[in-house]
Write a structure and sequence with these properties.
Layout: H1 16-47, H2 63-92, E1 99-106, E2 109-114, E3 119-121, E4 123-127, E5 132-138, E6 143-147, E7 152-156, E8 162-166, E9 172-178, E10 191-196, H3 198-205, H4 213-223, E11 248-250, E12 256-258, H5 261-269, H6 292-304
Parallel strand pairs: 1-5, 4-10
Antiparallel strand pairs: 1-2, 2-3, 5-8, 6-7, 6-9, 9-10, 11-12
The chain binds dinuclear copper ion.
């Protein structure tokens, strides 16, 4: 649509056209009212100029007019709100079978980790026409993951995993920017997203070396001694982690939490916040011993642990216990 009028970046993702439609709506509304208001100002300035109307006189109000200028803008802004919010939610709720990729932002680079263990810096390779879910976290300050061609701009937060997704629709190479001022080198925090044909992507992916993320996580799990308390059966001092992901866990303070990536992350970096009911409060804090990359490896390892045959789904189970 815009090849001949290159005001906008290419539309290279499934949401790009929808974001543009909303944007055009906003621009049209703003342009319509700005034009109307300025034309009226000029018209009134001439029509009611002082030389012809030396005496001003009070106007006592006009109910229909006041209703109109209240209700019309209310309706328009509600349209903007509902439209914008639904698009925002759509971008933030990844479809179930999407391809997951971790992105860690740090001053001043993007570190990408694929599930098979392939790592990249300032580059993200993805297959075309596939839903890509990014699980993002920052190692330091707030960054923002911005790919104009995909119409995706999402904050990357320290200490918390955020999920959002896109579906690239064209093979090509696209700019990746950091869109949140994050320090002196912010403007250099750029990279590229390479969208490939599925076959080429599979070939590219073959280059992983150190094993999958969850395999690295397992090594770390052993190194840090997690396995001494978290045994596969219920015999450990901490809760068993098998089949834990997605379960609801009861906390010592009565809350019931669903085990997702953020829950696991909190258990490791701030265990006081997630003391699981029925376990002693002995889980140490690992926040200084594991970096963001180690954390996401551990999270992937725990996610990969399947329930032991013959064991109950461990309703009280929680990672790193209390
Ligand atoms: Cu990272 Cu700006």
């Amino acid at each position: 649509m815009w090849q001949t009028l290159p005001l906008f970046p290419q539309q290279a993702s499934s949401v790009a056209a929808q974001v543009d439609q909303l944007y055009f709506f906003l621009v049209t509304v703003a342009a319509f009212f700005s034009t109307g208001i300025f034309l009226t100002i000029f018209y009134f300035a001439i029509r009611y100029r002082r030389s012809r109307h030396p005496q001003a006189h009070e106007v006592e109000g006009a109910l229909p007019l006041e209703l109109a200028w209240t209700l019309i803008p209310l309706g328009l802004t509600m349209v903007m709100f509902v439209w914008g919010a639904s698009l925002f939610f759509a971008e933030n709720q990844p479809p179930r079978d999407s391809l997951k990729v971790y992105v860690v932002g740090k001053q001043w680079m993007w570190k990408v980790e694929h599930m098979d263990g392939t790592r990249e810096i300032n580059e993200l390779h993805v297959p075309v026409n596939r839903d890509i879910e990014l699980i993002t976290v920052s190692q330091d300050v707030i960054h923002s993951f911005f790919v104009p061609e995909f119409r995706i701009k999402q904050d990357v937060l320290p200490g918390r995993y955020r999920h959002f997704w896109f579906r690239p629709t064209r093979v090509g190479t696209y700019h990746l920017f950091c869109a949140e001022y994050c320090g002196t080198q912010h403007s250099h925090m750029t990279g590229q997203v390479v969208v490939m044909e599925p076959a080429a992507y599979e070939q590219w992916l073959g280059g992983g070396t150190g094993g999958s993320l969850s395999a690295s996580g397992e090594r770390l799990f052993q190194q840090l001694g997690c396995a001494t308390c978290h045994k596969a059966d219920a015999s450990g001092r901490g809760p068993s982690l098998a089949g834990l992901f997605g379960q609801t866990v009861k906390m010592a303070d009565g809350r019931a939490l669903v085990v997702d990536e953020n829950y696991l992350r909190t258990c490791i970096t701030n265990p006081d916040a997630t003391r699981v009911a029925g376990f002693p409060a002995i889980m140490p804090n690992f926040s200084t011993q594991v970096g963001e990359e180690g954390l996401l490896q551990l999270v992937e390892y725990i996610k990969s642990l399947k329930q032991q045959p013959g064991q109950p789904a461990a309703p009280a189970a929680g990672p790193k216990g209390q």
